[in-house]
Specification:
Elements (H helix, E strand, L loop, with lengths): L3 H16 L2 E5 L11 E3 L2 E3 L14 H16 L7 E4 L1 H4 L11 E3 H7 L5 E8 H9 L18 E2 L3 E5 L24 E6 L2 E2 L5 E7 H4 L12 E9 H12 L1 E2 L7 E8 L8 E4 L3 E7 L13 E8 L7 E7 L6 H6 L13 E7 L7 E10 L3 E10 L46
Parallel strand pairs: 1-13, 4-11, 8-14, 15-21
Antiparallel strand pairs: 1-5, 2-3, 4-7, 6-11, 6-12, 8-9, 9-10, 14-16, 16-19, 17-18, 17-20, 20-21
């Protein structure tokens, strides 16, 4: 007669065998954000002391899982969604490592999302989604910080700017929510699919039940509408995505970047008003990611495009990005002392809007290379002041592109890893 121990042993053996089944391939490590790693030859590496699961920073793994959720909405009876979200602060329990040949086993994939949460959809207005991002700064309903900032993983079609990288910053008022252009907002701009977030538009979110129920103090989720259980498990969505993708690569484009000292000064979530022929300047920080394998950005390229154009733009200026740990360089770029630019890359954006630019709405996008982290902002150009005509500037693209095709998907995203997953696959 078999003992209970025999049954358990047999079950474990069978599970181990099933877990070895290959379901995909990766070209490199895809990980959470790390601390205590080292930058060597321009790449963030683990030399033995790095610690995984830095919940205050976005990661290549968080973006990939959020993309998997968004992809499932398109490929199933859900009928599509606008935004994928994963609670990267605690929801990602292991890494996808290249190992010896890049093979991803079922067991390795399952270890990333081991909780078997149900996948849900919920609808939020643009104003509510902006509030959702505000609630990454942890606070109770009485606006008392309950624990430090948790960086939520968002799909790569979502990008946004923030005004601080301090985990302990006071949250914008939660009891009555935070007004769209509240001066206390930490979120200063948001782009979805290359377009500015609209406060009145309804966006369909796909995520796990933990978040739709307001977990991790995302209290605005309680105000969402049309919450639906898809009947899918996060584990199954995730493993199916890896199987269907075949070979995947990490994206090191950061979803959010810190923008300081924007001139002309602009209220949060508002368009920057600038006269043709005048300059726009800002100090950018936290351009680099700290997932293993992340490259240190070296150059910032700033483009101007028509607001409705998602295919290209006109190069206005280039600027250097500081090397990791260059605190003096960050200070020279105008990054405030109360921020934390030690290892994340800083740059000073300084561009002049061509004097012959027609009045209208445009998108100004700065792309940090080689990660393709991008900083986008909406600008409203007014007529140039009367006076002697100056030299004509470059033509502003309103269709087609004048930039390298490898950059096209991220030009109008704020922190882009690529266009929406229609290919919804991460950029190489």
């Amino acid at each position: 007669m078999q003992t209970i121990s025999d049954h358990v042993t047999a079950a474990i053996d069978e599970a181990n065998l099933l877990g070895q089944r290959p379901i995909g391939q990766t070209t490199a490590d895809i990980t959470t954000a790390h601390t205590a790693g080292e930058w060597q030859s321009g790449v963030y590496q683990n030399t033995g002391s790095a610690v995984r699961d830095d919940r205050a920073n976005e990661s290549s793994l968080g973006t990939l899982v959020a993309n998997a959720f968004l992809d499932a909405a398109d490929l199933s009876a859900i009928g599509g969604a606008d935004i994928g979200i994963v609670n990267a602060g605690g929801g990602l329990r292991a890494e996808l490592l290249y190992g010896t040949d890049g093979t991803i086993s079922y067991a390795a994939a399952n270890s990333v999302l081991p909780f078997a949460n149900n996948v849900w959809t919920i609808e939020l207005t643009g104003a509510q989604f902006k509030q959702f991002l505000e609630e990454q700064w942890r606070a109770t309903p009485d606006n008392v910080p309950s624990r430090p900032f948790l960086a939520t993983g968002v799909s790569s079609n979502v990008t946004y700017t923030v005004n601080t990288d301090q985990p302990g910053a006071m949250a914008c008022t939660l009891a009555d929510e935070c007004a769209w252009n509240d001066p206390n907002s930490h979120i200063t701009s948001v782009f979805i699919n290359g377009q500015p977030l609209d406060p009145d538009t309804t966006y369909k979110i796909i995520t796990i039940s933990f978040l739709t129920a307001g977990g991790d103090n995302y209290l605005v989720m309680n105000d969402g509408t049309n919450a639906q259980d898809t009947g899918l498990l996060d584990r199954d969505v995730w493993t199916s995505y890896l199987e269907n993708a075949g070979t995947i690569s990490p994206s090191f484009a950061r979803p959010s970047v810190v923008v300081s000292n924007l001139t002309p000064a602009t209220a949060p979530m508002e368009s920057t008003v600038v006269a043709a022929g005048s300059s726009v300047t800002a100090s950018l920080s936290r351009l680099d990611m700290t997932s293993l394998g992340s490259p240190a950005n070296t150059t910032l390229e700033t483009y101007l495009s028509a607001a409705t154009d998602t295919s290209g733009g006109t190069l206005l200026a280039t600027a250097p990005v500081t090397a990791p740990g260059d605190t003096e360089g960050c200070a020279a770029a105008g990054v405030p002392e109360d921020l934390n630019p030690d290892s994340n890359g800083c740059a000073y954006m300084n561009v002049t809007i061509p004097a012959d630019t027609p009045a209208g709405t445009y998108v100004l996008t700065s792309i940090a290379m080689p990660s393709k982290t991008a900083v986008s902002m909406e600008i409203t150009v007014t007529a140039a002041p009367a006076g002697p005509a100056g030299p004509a500037g470059p033509e502003i693209i309103t269709g087609g592109t004048s930039v390298p095709t490898s950059l096209v998907p991220s030009l109008v995203l704020f922190v882009a890893a690529g266009a929406v997953l229609a290919s919804r696959r991460l950029l190489s």
